[in-house]
Amino acid sequence: MSTLLSFRDVWVEYGDRIIIEKLNLDIEEGAFVSIVGPSGAGKSSFLRLILGQEGPSRGVITLDGTALAPECGPDRGVVFQRYSVFPHLTVLRNTVFGLECAKAPVLGRLFGRTRHAAEAEATEMLNAVGLGHSLDLYPAQMSGGMQQRLAIAQALVKRPRVLLLDEPFGALDPGIRADMHALIRRLWREYSLTIVMVTHDIREAFTLGTRVLALDKRRHDPHAPHRYGATVVYDLPMRARPEELSETSDDITIDVIRNN
Amino acid sequence: MLLGAVPILLLLLLYIVMAASRHAVNPADKILPLPGAMVESMSALLFVPDQLTGQLVFWADTAASLQRLGIGLGISTLTALVVGLALGVLPPVRATFGPLVTGIAVIPPIALLPILFIALGLGETAKIALIVIGIAPVMVRDIAAHVAALPREQIIKALTLGANSWQVMIRVALPQAMPRLLHAMRLALGPAWVFLISAEAIASDVGLGYRIFLVRRYLSMDVILPYVAWIALLAIVMDVALTFLSRRMFPWAHGESH
């Protein structure tokens, strides 16, 4: 598989505070990368870099071989822990949003046949995440799990090159979380997605990811803790290929997939 | 609904008892007129054309006041939407014009009334300008704060879905500002009435506030009280209509199933 995202000697600095230092990393196409690490170890900075919310102070990030501009774009989809759906739009309108933005730059809305085509495409995606029967609900009428399903469908309908998940299941209760794990794994397989997921849940990181990256500071100066930034301290490949995952095992543990 | 009517009915009853007791002592009492006297003087204003102007005074007053209020509220609402959105969504605009809006908002509008009369004359413009200056800055700040407080995640999400700044403005910020705008209008109605009555009291020849301050000279409580009740009724109807409109048009903002 080819390299999709690549970090070359990337630094993030705010004044004399170093957040990320000398990050070198290649993410393969089709990988499911889990990012773990203590608070303040640059996990969110790392995600913001890929999102384009900010650019690196030094170094280059490339996506498909071209340098990433420091702005958000439709080639990188994102699902946040909360607030990533639009409360004023129904499920269907939320999902059509991305398609409308591309095709209707001035009005931001589609009409007639193009609208029907977009709605059909969005409905198909909503069926895939299990929201096919809730097209006309508003987010406030749905549970947290359903809102996250919607956020995923919303991002996937744009066919992003990489899907970023920022603690996507952190606010859900355990039963729902297991359902969501099964869902994201199925979508990852069916749509051949490349996923980068930041999580606090170590177990989640290991069960879902094909590769687990731990971000942390490599060195620590007690007199000037801000002078050393974080980088990848552990890089653990979990499974060679996604196909090895059995279809039926919804409750995989490290033992089941035999990679410990 | 019924329970809420009890205190109002008790107050009305108390008024009638007090009015009756005053009239028992002095049948010519003007301070607390009996309902009969109110009906009598109001029917003259309601149904008998004025000898000088040929108009039905009560309805002419109502139309004039509602027109001023409506234009003032309309201009303020439009300003709040356009300026509030720009201030809320675009940080450079906020940095440039935010302090100006805050500065205007803290000036007591009545203190500007003489300036308005001098600059704009004693006509309709000055009265409408007073209402606009009185309520628009508060509404602008409210909308700007509301829009600026939209979660950062939502904006990022919209950008990753391919939206540009314009689309973020009209598809994400504008629709979410609308229910807030109706709410701001409801809250602005109270001050708007205050500024309307003040402007009419000082320089006017028609209007609800003008009439109240005119007949005050003759201690005509039999006209003042029905006028005040009418103003209260108009204000309540507007408030209820705005609430209804908001629930009807933006069900998602009220957490209801539709």
Can you offer a commentary on this structure?
- The complex is a heterodimer of chains A (about 260) and B (about 260).
- Chain A is built from 6 helices and 10 strands.
- A 6-stranded mixed beta sheet of chain A has the order 6-7-8-3-9-10, sandwiched between helices. In chain A, strands 2-1-4-5 form a 4-stranded antiparallel beta sheet, covered by helices on one side.
- Chain A has 2 domains: about 1-75 and about 160-260, Rossmann fold, CATH 3.40.50.300; about 85-160, no CATH class.
- Mean pLDDT of chain A is about 80; it is low at about 240-260.
- Chain A has helices at about 45-50, 90-105, 110-130, 145-155, 175-190, 200-210; strands at about 5-15, 15-30, 30-35, 60-65, 65, 75-80, 160-165, 195-200, 210-215, 230-235.
- With about 260 residues, chain B is mainly α.
- Chain B has 10 helices and no strands.
- Chain B has helices at about 1-25, 35-45, 55-90, 90-105, 110-120, 125-150, 150-160, 165-200, 210-215, 220-250.
- In chain B, helix 3 (about 55-90) runs parallel beside helix 6.
- The longest helix of chain B has about 40 residues, at about 165-200.
- Classes of the chains: A alpha/beta (about 260), B mainly alpha (about 260).
- Chains A and B meet through strand 6, helix 2 and helix 4 of A and helix 7 and helix 8 of B.
Topology:
The complex is a heterodimer of chains A (260) and B (258).
Chain A: E1 3-14, E2 17-28, E3 32-36, H1 43-51, E4 58-63, E5 66-67, E6 76-79, H2 91-103, H3 112-128, H4 144-156, E7 162-166, H5 174-190, E8 195-198, H6 202-208, E9 211-217, E10 230-237
Parallel strand pairs in A: 3-8, 3-9, 6-7, 7-8
Antiparallel strand pairs in A: 1-2, 1-4, 4-5, 9-10
Chain B: H1 2-25, H2 35-47, H3 57-89, H4 91-106, H5 109-120, H6 124-148, H7 152-160, H8 165-202, H9 208-215, H10 221-249
InterPro entries (chain A): AAA+_ATPase (IPR003593), ABC_SmlMolc_Importer (IPR050093), ABC_transporter-like_ATP-bd (IPR003439), ABC_transporter-like_CS (IPR017871), P-loop_NTPase (IPR027417)
Protein name (chain A): ATP-binding cassette domain-containing protein
Domain ABC transporter (chain A): 5-242
